[in-house]
Design a protein that fits this description.
about 170 residues, two-stranded antiparallel sheet, 12 strands, alpha+beta, six-stranded antiparallel beta sheet
């Protein structure tokens, strides 16, 4: 009986050691939520709420806003290198983040549309620190923000002259 317990303990320790070695060999998860090379949430620095397609819509022209972060694909985004920047694609709809109607005006709405690669769908990413981004639209030269410094659920995403305020910073 003593031999069987010792053998069992050795087997458990060997399995645990093997699992530890495997886990050390595998790459760790990325350190930042703002790495747009993978599917991630974009949390607004001011509100700590996540950028999302409102109402889980898959329609062209659906508004983009902020909401309490949850585990939904309507809040996951991925940046695909294209043209002068990145196309930022929503995981739920498969559509691209864009400035509505190619507007260059402050306060212009942000929506989603079928990806066509136009400059209004291209976003330059500027890393402000580890995992912290500023997103600038290629067409307008303006930054993605939550307008009016709002912190409430449903506050719409807009564009505005870049000033690097907390409402324009994404993590």
């Amino acid at each position: 009986m003593h031999l069987n317990i010792a053998t069992s303990v050795r087997r458990v320790l060997s399995a645990a050691g093997g699992a530890l070695l495997i886990s050390l060999a595998l790459p760790s998860a990325p350190a930042t939520a703002a790495d747009l090379n993978e599917w991630y949430f974009l949390a607004n620095w001011k509100s700590a709420k996540c950028l999302e397609v409102g109402g889980w819509s898959t329609d062209n022209g659906a508004g983009v806003d902020q909401w309490d972060c949850h585990d939904g694909d309507n809040q996951r985004w991925k940046g695909i290198r294209y043209g002068e920047g990145r196309l930022i694609v929503n995981a739920h709809s498969g559509k691209c983040l864009e400035v509505k109607g190619w507007s260059k005006d402050n306060g212009a709405q942000i929506d989603q549309w079928d990806c066509h690669g136009g400059a209004n769908q291209q976003w330059k990413t500027e890393v402000l620190g580890e995992g912290i981004l500023l997103l600038t639209n290629v067409n307008s030269g303006k930054c993605l923000e939550i307008g009016g410094w709002r912190i409430d659920n449903g506050a719409p995403a807009t564009q505005w002259d870049c000033h690097r305020g907390d409402n324009q910073v994404w993590a």
